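Honest question from a wet-lab person: if I give you the sequences of every part of a complex, can you actually get the arrangement of the whole thing, not just the pieces? Trying it with mine:
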Amino acid sequence: GIQVEQSPPDLILQEGANSTLRCNFSDSVNNLQWFHQNPWGQLINLFYIPSGTKQNGRLSATTVATERYSLLYISSSQTTDSGVYFCAVCSGTYKYIFGTGTRLKVLA
Amino acid sequence: DAGVTQSPTHLIKTRGQHVTLRCSPISGHKSVSWYQQVLGQGPQFIFQYYEKEERGRGNFPDRFSARQFPNYSSELNVNALLLGDSALYLCASSLGGYLRYGYTFGSGTRLTVV
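Yes, you can. This is the full assembly:
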């Protein structure tokens, strides 16, 4: 089955810093989402981005489907950005495969 | 509009018992999917239901079953609980049966088996 790898696995930032999170996948996909899991466990949808570039405030994402990767950019990070970021991909029709996650901690 | 709602939020059960978890999708969403997330890992797919029919099943034993009701709400049932079933169980709803519309997740049910 499709493999999804995220890097880096852990990241510690000072408030105000920028960061780039990467998601590599081993096969072609037709759907891709980025999620932020908060300390209470809820998965918050950040972007539905099977291809192209999207921006939402301080966050933006780019997926290059032909090269099998996606990037999530966080600018001017805040302590509330802390948590785990997951990339999830779908190569069929009914299920997502989640990556291993990037654990982000933003220090005040 | 309410988001995806799951109940209960927390649950403690004893090995061998049975548990039922519930999920109500976003109004207008006809598809519900269930995921299991063990501590420190990403969520793993269990089931997808669309229009009350099972559309997909992950690599989980037959102790796991689910169903979807006419109002599109769903139940996940787990029989003969094992310690390894302790996890966060997440429900996600989507507009259609295909994921091109993406998912919205609920807050999850944290199950502890002792």
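Two things worth pointing out. The domain at 5-113 of chain B is CATH 2.60.40.10 (Immunoglobulin-like). The CA atoms of residues 11 and 111 of chain B lie 5 Å apart.
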